[in-house]
Design a protein that fits this description.
The protein is mainly alpha-helical and 158 residues long. Helices cover 54% and strands 8% of the residues. It contains 6 helices and 4 strands. The strands form 2 sheets. A two-stranded antiparallel ribbon has the order 1-2. The protein has a two-stranded antiparallel ribbon with strand order 3-4.
Length: 158
Amino acid sequence: MSAGPITIGEAARRTGVSAKMIRWYEATGLLPPATRSKAGYRHYDDADLHTLRFVRRARDLGFSVEAIADLLALWRDRARPSAGVKAIAEEQIADLRRRIGELEGMARTLERLAESCCGDARPDCPILDDLATEDGPRLTRTSSRGLGQRRPVRRVCE
């Protein structure tokens, strides 16, 4: 692959990870400290690039830095059982599904608020009124499974 060590800029180009993030991954320990040239420039080799691609892919899948550190440790341990890796992946799936549910709830709330706003020249705005409430949206029980967002009063727009 590489004929020798490469600079941080080239590593960023080859991996799709910004130079700033490469330095941050190094500072947090996800990437081992780079070797340095006599002038103090960071140099990376193929193993570093492979690690950066691994980290980028894990970040693309939404893993936390802590989970990525765990995955990297498991990846580097060729004698590891795959059960630990699967457990981390299943935890991530559950977290993603929870976040999807939260995002869908936010979208429903905003849809209801947008439907109740006339969007005309008048200053009245139920969206701003809702955002200004001290305690946030009031929740009402909609089923035995959980809470639903309140439904704003429908405005009559002329």
